[in-house]
Write a structure and sequence with these properties.
Oligomer: single chain
Structural class: alpha/beta
Bound molecules: zinc ion
Shape: globular
Number of helices: 14
Order of helices and strands: EEEEEEHHEHEHEHEHHHEHEHHEHHHEEE
Amino acid sequence: MTHGSDWRHSDRMHGPPPNSAAHNPSRQSIAGRWVIPVEGSPIEHGIIEIENGRIVALHQNPAEDAVSFGDAVIVPGLINAHTHLEFSSLEQPLAADSFAAWIRAVVAHRRTRSISNAAAAKIGLHESAASGTVTVGEIATKGWSGELFADTDLRAVIFRELLALHPDRIPGQLSIASEHLEPAQESGESGPVFGLSPHAPYSVHPELFREVCGLAAARSAPIAFHLAETREELQLLDSSTGPLVDLFREMGFWIDGQIEAGTRPLDYLQEMARAPQGIVIHGNYLSDSEIEFLAEHSNLTVVYCPRTHHFFRHAPHPWLKLHERGVRVALGTDSRASNPDLSLWNEIVFLHERFPDVAPALLLQMATRNGAGGLGIAEETGSIVPGKAADLTVIQPAHRDDRDAFAGLLSSGSRVVAAMRGGKWIQSARLRR
Ligand SMILES: [Zn+2]
């Protein structure tokens, strides 16, 4: 490694290296103290060879022209499997003393905010990139902008939110769903992937849910659904009573008799399993039989949102049990309406603090490979292996340990120093504390 190619010694101290390599822009090498590929063991003094945006080799042989990150650790590009970027202009989560009160605050925010949906999403994309996230699983609503996602440096899976409890609104929501999947054929390798998100059992008519699952299956589109999020939701499904029913009745959304008594999250999981990939958002209150069902269906993934879960003071999340049963668990931030920021890295630092006995390797896998599997893009990203896109996040650990790639990595003193998507440095991923 020559001194001149070591960007840490260059005058570009406040950002990742430029994208125009001097000699052959289609070919580049990147070196770190450790490379943690997530698939396979960590490689000390690892070199990642990239050609035309794809990883072609991973080795330890010195490379003269490698861009060296010194003591930093290179991991697969972080994947935030669940967010709603439309709330990204919020400076702090919406305060509420119950889930029903929080929904009320979200509805009020949507009605009164002065910023457009697209402008807020732009802020969120920038924040995501700046915190080292390379892929987002975004729930897009009315007014979302296709151009915004075409322009972004980030990889995106865009799920169109669908909401309707009234049967009369089902056809309209189905045509929105169908239209959203139209660009799928044209978006190509680098464009976004399009999916569908029927919102939640309490906001989607069961018939609409079935139809959307069928559409996702027919069009090979991924699906994302908020499920088993609160006890209030379980009560609503079981007996059409409780604070959520009271709230929706007051708001004029609720219609008696739409949801059969004794309905369980399992009924929804059985429908979801028809989609090629299904994301169960939250799953905070999944029962044992639901966990077993998930274990038997590898196309279903649970996305745990640790700090959002903490914000609502839920009962402990079953993520470790899910993992032990072989269910894929990915991570999400959810939105700034329930989280102080959009940093997926901060989610694993938070988990590591609370679960110091859980192997950091598992937390990193949840933040990368499991997200890719859940979003249906595992062939493209999620681990550092030849053939996949060069999606990388570079972390400066709080302290160095020559024997352990993970030492100090997930501590709060570590920081993201750069991120790359498909061989291109994400220019907003600045050096930051
Ligand atoms: Zn959500």
